[in-house]
Specification:
The complex is a heterodimer of chains A (451) and B (299). With 451 residues, chain A is an alpha+beta fold. Chain A has 15 helices and 14 strands. Chain A has a single domain, classed as Cytochrome-c3 Hydrogenase, chain B (Orthogonal Bundle), CATH 1.10.645. In chain A, strand 7 and strand 8 form a beta hairpin. Chain B has a five-stranded parallel β-sheet with strand order 2-1-3-4-5, sandwiched between helices. Chain B has a two-stranded antiparallel ribbon with strand order 6-7. The longest helix of chain B is centred in the middle third of the chain and has 14 residues. Chain B has twelve helices and seven strands. Helix content of chain B is 30%, strand content 10%. The chains are: A alpha+beta (451), B alpha/beta (299). Chains A and B meet through helix 1, helix 2, helix 4, helix 5 and strand 5 of A and helix 1, helix 2 and helix 10 of B.
Amino acid sequence: MKTVDIIERIEGEAHLKLEWRNSVVKDARIEFLNFRGFEYMLVGKPPLDALVYTPRVCGICGQAHLLSCVNALENLYKNANIDLEVPKKAKLIRELGLAIETLDSHIKWFYLFIMPDVVSLSPNDYKEYEPIKGQKWLAATKVASDIMRGLAIFGGQWPHTSYMLPGGVMCDPTLIDLATIENYIDQGITFFEKNLSGVSISEYLMFNNVEDINKLTADLKDFKDISFEYGLNNIGKSYNRFFVIADILGFKSGRIKQINAGKINFEKIKEHDDFSFDATASKQSSKKYTWAKTVNYDEMFFETGPMARALVGGRKFIKAIHKEYDDSAYTRVMSRMDEVAYLLQRCKKIIKSIDISEPSYIQPQVKLKDIPYSKARGVVEAARGSLMHEVEIEKGKIKSYNLITPTVWNLGPGSKTKPGTAQKAIIGSKSIQEATITLRSFDVCSVCTTH
Amino acid sequence: MRIKPKVLWFQGITCNGNTHSLLCANPSRMELFLNSFDLIYHPSLTTQTNLLDIINSDEKIDFLLIEGAISDDTKFFSILNHSVKDLLSKLVSKSTYIVSVGSCASYGGIHAKFELNDDITGVQNSLGKKLTSKLKHKVINLTGCPVHPEWILQTLFIVKSQGKIQLDEEHRPVDLYSTLTHHGCTRNEYFEWKVEPEHFGTKEGCLFYNQGCRGPMTKSSCNKILWNGVNSKTRLGMPCIGCTETDFPRANMLETNKNIGIPAEVPLGISKRAYLSITGVAKTFKISRLQDKLINYDE
């Protein structure tokens, strides 16, 4: 067993252990050795405090956790048969927060996390991508920081704001606020056009066949060129099954298994811990090696994230790329960057739909802590994929809280008989470099994975 | 000090929120920081160095920045197969200035609420008096969940030029943590005249009375140095949750704890009697400008 001990530049830490036969990876383990116990922390806390705790699961996708949490808390009302009204304006503002955070995450991931590995494959000079010093690295952090100002206009700050709550949002934006947010989105569009794609966003959004990739002239062209030269379009293939948990931001929930698309039955989502440590055990059994749990649907592993959203939702350009290159590392990265264009125009649309004369919040008739008992789930599509929060309350306190994060879907340790999604993608790799790039194409966020 | 002091960013038990907060710094300030300091290692940003090589080298670190809480337990948390405390101690022995970046590094923060591991604490506490008394400068705590990027940059720039920075009893720079979150809040007039908002989601009213705002009891520069350069939580209508104070996270953070309708805690340093007298007087006036909506948009 050869070990790439530490995967550098991820959120947190992961170890990749590879078993080789005839210079090919025969088995792969992704070990997450850090556990912070958010689900344990939340037990006994007042229900609304979950809005403060859960964004702090992850410094990069706190809005997704906040929205998932608020959805779960609102469903507690529904499941206790108590009417709750949420203004349309509040729902739109929440989606805007999620969309802006996802944009920030996608841009930072491409430039700070995956491109340094991708350019290292090539002997050519890609100095501009060098972390900390390179102009492209600096330009990416600049635009990410600018876009986040848009979120702070209505979220107060980022990271770690809790401006959503059952019944609506805490802010009440003015017309100037909306115009300012749109200005920041426009800066994002300029970045997409000049730095990322090299074509206008309207032209880009018309792309619908695999040859359109050759129209790219900017940084995505660098990615494409290196990908084809080093075969990223042939590596990193997994089950080719996709899962989207939430109807949000225009994404459609559903799943694709080979060619059959279907609706989701939540009862078929099951978490397993065959290989996962037990927090309350004093001694772990020898087959346990990671804090990550694993999750499957109808006993099958699915990939979640931008590629799943593009395919389940039927975005033409990514469908064409996927048809040609399957669920390869190349398709995975292109899907995530394609979502940048999709979300930028979606943000513009959301801003235009906000009616500022509506209320931002309608006070629930009953306080959450006065509901004797209820149980509910909340789902959302986070930057890395499907996120679910499940909460149970009793006598004014949280009785249980369970998180199933996107990275559990993608990076979990698999079942006794089948490898997990990323494991399967790594098995068959011919070099450590290939295995690590494949792993990175899923975006390894250890903080979310183990929470 | 070197012309370009060496900075090492170490992560303990964290959500990486302070890293992402730093990345939200004003871009030209960020560039100035990167030109003025030599960021030799950050686990999720740099590529040329690795932590164990640095630890095993003779290289001295000018500023050791720590994000996240510390623990000596390895059952729940380890980094590079070491405990967080073990690596921290090794790094501290090579470093001149120690800066806890965020509430978790300062005193354990939210991570200390994970009770199955009862060993989670902040940098100062973990190192202990014996070690910290030998340091050239006291451990600097930059509390906040997360910390504002400017607070990091300003602290580093002050120490770089002055060699030291004055700290309060919680080891926080007095320049950043002497004022209250309340100072500079655009809702201050509503506080003066004791005008409560009807509920969440309004431009009007002070959040101290019902929504649990800790602004008048919390030391921070949140309304002085705006977040992401544009806003603050209290300005938009989210109560301050007191994340720069060592009792964060408390219970019931989004509602005011009251006794017979009166906030159980009154603004810092104000006697209850003084507070109640002023409140009683202010409440007798119904000032229509403050009772009305600020802006009435046509439907």
